[in-house]
Amino acid sequence: MHIIPAIDIIEGKAVRLTQGDYSQKKEYNARPLEVAQQFEDAGLTRLHLVDLDGAKEKRVINWKVLELIASKTSLHVDFGGGVQSDDDLRMVFECGAKQVTGGSIAMKQPDVMERWLSRLGSEKIILGADAKNEKIAVSGWEEGTDVWIYDFVEKWVEKGIQYVISTDVAKDGLLQGPSFDLYRNLQDRFPDLNIIASGGVSTMSDIETLADMDIFGVIVGKAIYEGRVTLKELRQFAE
């Protein structure tokens, strides 16, 4: 299983939100590159980088942070937040991202997402399927929908999506454990999909349970920053 540490960016700094609430922001490091280098030094090879300003403004804003991390580390960076146009997409890949996550755009402009998938292939585009009570949430989780997550994912699997990041908004940042049932349900319905679990991871036990489920990857953020899970412990999963 891939351990994918997360760096969320607001105003160029590494922060974490609780349940996607911008008013519940905690700053961890003014230099995200330092954080990324610590992950790399621990033997981790991937990074989930989220432009929270971009998610709010619906355009990529913190591209310089991406460019810096991609040029100064060898981390496989998947980037999300504010990628809403062809120009955003081009800029993100030019700045060094290996994959781009499309969540809001997959919901609101599916024709654009479909075009990206067709043009770049399923190795480059990750579906963002974030949900609250199994209903899709978009725009940095500020908007709820009535769309059932399994219907949403099925639609995109039929169009060729191979990777999905799914965050249970109700769990994110609370350090109360992931939504194991959500990921089991996704795996049961879509056995060939590379599912990346996100939100709620608080202990090594959570990570080991997901590993036992044969989940493709798990995003770990606040648990690292709060010292609940150490980089030394994560070395066992280093690739």
Automatic annotation (TrEMBL):
<dbReference type="Pfam" id="PF00977">
    <property type="entry name" value="His_biosynth"/>
</dbReference>
<keyword id="KW-0368">Histidine biosynthesis</keyword>
<dbReference type="InterPro" id="IPR006062">
    <property type="entry name" value="His_biosynth"/>
</dbReference>
<dbReference type="InterPro" id="IPR044524">
    <property type="entry name" value="Isoase_HisA-like"/>
</dbReference>
<comment type="similarity">
    <text>Belongs to the HisA/HisF family.</text>
</comment>
<feature type="active site" description="Proton acceptor">
    <location>
        <position position="8"/>
    </location>
</feature>
<dbReference type="InterPro" id="IPR006063">
    <property type="entry name" value="HisA_bact_arch"/>
</dbReference>
<protein>
    <recommendedName>
        <fullName>1-(5-phosphoribosyl)-5-[(5-phosphoribosylamino)methylideneamino] imidazole-4-carboxamide isomerase</fullName>
        <ecNumber>5.3.1.16</ecNumber>
    </recommendedName>
</protein>
<comment type="pathway">
    <text>Amino-acid biosynthesis; L-histidine biosynthesis; L-histidine from 5-phospho-alpha-D-ribose 1-diphosphate: step 4/9.</text>
</comment>
<dbReference type="GO" id="GO:0003949">
    <property type="term" value="F:1-(5-phosphoribosyl)-5-[(5-phosphoribosylamino)methylideneamino]imidazole-4-carboxamide isomerase activity"/>
</dbReference>
<dbReference type="InterPro" id="IPR023016">
    <property type="entry name" value="HisA/PriA"/>
</dbReference>
<dbReference type="GO" id="GO:0000162">
    <property type="term" value="P:L-tryptophan biosynthetic process"/>
</dbReference>
<dbReference type="GO" id="GO:0005737">
    <property type="term" value="C:cytoplasm"/>
</dbReference>
<feature type="active site" description="Proton donor">
    <location>
        <position position="130"/>
    </location>
</feature>
<dbReference type="InterPro" id="IPR011060">
    <property type="entry name" value="RibuloseP-bd_barrel"/>
</dbReference>
<keyword id="KW-0028">Amino-acid biosynthesis</keyword>
<dbReference type="GO" id="GO:0000105">
    <property type="term" value="P:L-histidine biosynthetic process"/>
</dbReference>
<dbReference type="InterPro" id="IPR013785">
    <property type="entry name" value="Aldolase_TIM"/>
</dbReference>
<keyword id="KW-0413">Isomerase</keyword>
<keyword id="KW-0963">Cytoplasm</keyword>
